[in-house]
Amino acid sequence: MHTVAVLSLKGGVGKTTVALGIASAALRRGTRTLVADLDPQGNATASLDPPYTEATLADVLETPHRAVLQRAIAPSVWSDEVDVLVGSDELELLNEPGPEGRRLENLSRALDELHQSPTRGRPYDLAVLDCPPSLGRLTRSALVAADSAILVTEPTMYAVSGAQRALEAIKQIREQQNPDLRAIGVLVNRLRVRSHEHQFRIAELRESFGSLVMPTAIPDRLAIQQAQGACSPIHEWNSPGAQEIALTFNMVLAKILRSDRAGRHRFRAEGESEAETTGPVERVRSTNP
Ligand SMILES: Nc1ncnc2c1ncn2[C@@H]1O[C@H](COP(=O)(O)OP(=O)(O)OP(=O)(O)O)[C@@H](O)[C@H]1O
Ligand SMILES: [Mg+2]
Questions:
Q1: 256-259 contacts at long range (C-beta below 8 A, 24 or more positions apart)
Q2: Tens digits of residue pLDDT in 161-179
Q3: Cα of 7 to ligand 2 centre, how many Å?
Q4: Other CB atoms closer than 10 Å to residue 217's CB: what's the count?
Q5: Which of 62, 107, 113, 196 has its CA 20 to 30 A from that of 40?
Q6: 183-228 pLDDT, tens per residue?
């Protein structure tokens, strides 16, 4: 199982959208997926609309045992192939500053437990961790548990400093707790291709982070909001805008799976070579410039 954390410093830049987009691409590809909703707002849970569960991720983080996991995981409304580790507002209490240590590792323990003895059906190939909008304890516990991390940003004024701080957090967790953690890249969301401001901000990001800025950005499209509102995977939303975005998420998923060469639970996409992961980035573009 490969575990990817989707994070950003700022709220509302598209973490949940990206987490759901990756899960949608995984569903299309036949990759069995668990979406863990670490955000007390519970937006990923709302969009995936699982049936009521007796426990939530807040309980799992307190007690990372199989029995608790079993009660906190349910199938999404999308498909039996995409499950949800359900979020709740009680997570807010676990985001507060306090003594670090064991608790920060509990998500990692829970996911290890899941890997060793799956709770529902066949084992997961992918776990997607939707983080809250801060670098607090919940996001850090996601980074401790993850094989890889994606930073989401909008192409706006503070994008560079935000990405810088998030990358520093990744580096710190890698040095202190999780040497396997790698940054997949900075994914730009809500790009308006004709906006000079957006192109300027992307140039700024590329100047600072080079090829870490993912070559394909997600355009600003109403289809995203429509699909989320209808609790539908973007790959099943029938509009040209949705199809364009679905292709982008296929590329993001491929990049995640390719990054897993040294992951804790090795999982390689079919028919790919190592060289594919490291090509130079020409320029940031949307799939339909
Ligand atoms: N590319 C896009 N085009 C159009 N709307 C988008 C796009 N990306 C995100 N949105 C919309 O913007 C809003 C915020 O997105 P989202 O919930 O994914 O952000 P977030 O970073 O998870 O927010 P939070 O920090 O509150 O968790 C949502 O209503 C979503 O539908
Ligand atoms: Mg969110």
A1: 256/2, 256/4, 256/22, 256/126, 256/148, 256/150, 256/184, 257/2, 257/31, 257/126, 259/147, 259/148, 259/182, 259/184
A2: 888 899 999 999 999 999 9
A3: 9
A4: 27
A5: 113
A6: 999 999 999 999 999 999 999 999 999 999 999 999 999 999 999 9
What was the pLDDT predicted at 90? 87
Ligand 1 within 6 A of CB of 15: yes
State pTM to two decimals.
Answer: 0.90
Choice from 9, 16, 188, 218 to test ligand 1 binding pocket (greatest atom count within 8 A of CB): 16
Report the CATH number of the 5-9+13-278 domain: 3.40.50.300
Sequence spans of domains, the chain? 5-9+13-278
Q: In ligand 1, which atom is closest to the CA atom of 245?
A: 1
